[in-house]
Amino acid sequence: MLKEKIVAKLKSKQIKDFIIYGFGQAINLLSPLLVIPYIVFICGEEGLGKAGVGFSFALIAIVLVDYGSYINGTKDISINHNDNAVLEDKFTTIYLSKLLLLAVVTLISILIIVSLPFFQKDKLQLLLSLFIVVGQFINPTWFFQGIQNFKWISIINILSKAIYLVLVFLFIKKAEDYIYINLFLGIGSIIASALGFIWIYTQFSFSFKKASISKAIDLIKNEFSLTISQLFFSFYQYAPIMLISYFCGNFVAGQYRIIDQVIMIFRTYFQMFFNFIYADICLNIYNDVKTGITNWKLKNGLNYIMVLVLLLIFYFNSEIILLFFKVNVRNLDNLNSYFKLGLLIPFFMGISFALKQLMFSFNKNIEYIRITFFTTTISLIMMSFLLQKIGLKGAFISIILAEILFIILYFYTLYLKKQTNSINEDSNH
Q: Is 207 left (phi over 0), alpha (psi -120 to 50) or beta?
């Protein structure tokens, strides 16, 4: 009876946490829907395309600054959530390593922006986009995920996006103002993230006095291969708009950004769901593999069914959605066909995200690195070729094929692990 009460209480807490976390993430999903039609109206598709290149550049740089904190960092915090000394050591070491990386990444980014002709022509906007990277450096969401404090994750999301929206609607008044879009996003993130950081630092009585630079450097060395794989995955996610801008121009890049923004709703949701249950899945599998797998199947299965329903709704209302983003009516038919094709991306993405969760839970990091490197390389080469041959449609086709390849390779790797475990169990008997 007592056990049943405890289980019921835990489930009730998890539902409450999901509602709180989901509300905060909903702001992440809704804020672009509010701001992008306004940006297209003021700055046009070309301005949106240019800002999209800066945004993608910042997101790629962020991967190097995060340096595995959202994977192994969250996992370590989850497992050691009752040990304050370990939490302090992880917190201070990770932030010190992130600070070192921020300095290096900022310097390299500035050199790339002022040196390469493709970036140089819009260097001010790209340099201002680096404020997003600073905001993500401060962002302690990885720690909150580990201790499963979803209230503060929501506070950071809501406050940062509220500041961003206010700044955009107040100060974006003419086409040339597109250069400030990413700056405003960065400012919102810096302010909100700083509040979360201060709360953790005071609540847990952490101190950087014991922080060790040698530990931070060791962490950077240990996480190097995982981070490189995440960097390649970020190229897979965010480099397409750069390739489209290079091969097809900023106007077409703006069209892609509009469709990609809808796809990003699903991508953001999958990432949100991944982060929400990741610590719990890791803990369950760590304690008991069979229970953990059952938990993983149930949660991801129900989530995927819900996503399929949403995809059908989006598919049959595609023209209404595109017109909401203020697209030119003359381009509606072409964009509508691209949009419907693009909806296949989240269809496969839901499966690949769920399998990726198992890859990390079973410590298949080396295999994940190899898969990510291989698939991203193939995808970007294919995209560069198809963009020149069939235009914007080529970008969506290459991403769909890459998602399918991710699924096949993840499944094959996990299937091999299962077969190996079965052989080991039989030999023990």
A: beta
R_g (Cα) of the chain, nearest Å: 22
Residue 192 tokens read as 């909100």
Q: Which of 10-19, 38-47, 353-362 has the lowest mean pLDDT?
A: 10-19
Distance of alpha carbon 102 from alpha carbon 216, whole angstroms: 13
> Largest alpha-carbon pair distance within the chain?
74
Give pLDDT, residue 423: 41
Cβ of 272: how many Cβ atoms within 10 Å? 20
Looking at 116-180, list the stretches that DSSP marks H as alpha helix, in order from N- to C-terminal side: 117-120, 123-138, 141-146, 150-171
Indicate the DSSP class of residue 223. T
pLDDT in tens, 277-288: 877 888 788 888
> Average model confidence (pLDDT) for the chain?
86
Cβ-proximal residues to 185 (8 Å cutoff; 6+ apart), any chain:
55, 131, 132, 135, 164
**C-alpha of 97 from chain center:** 20
pLDDT exceeds 60 at position 6: no
Q: Can you tell me which residue has the tokens 């950087």? A: 208
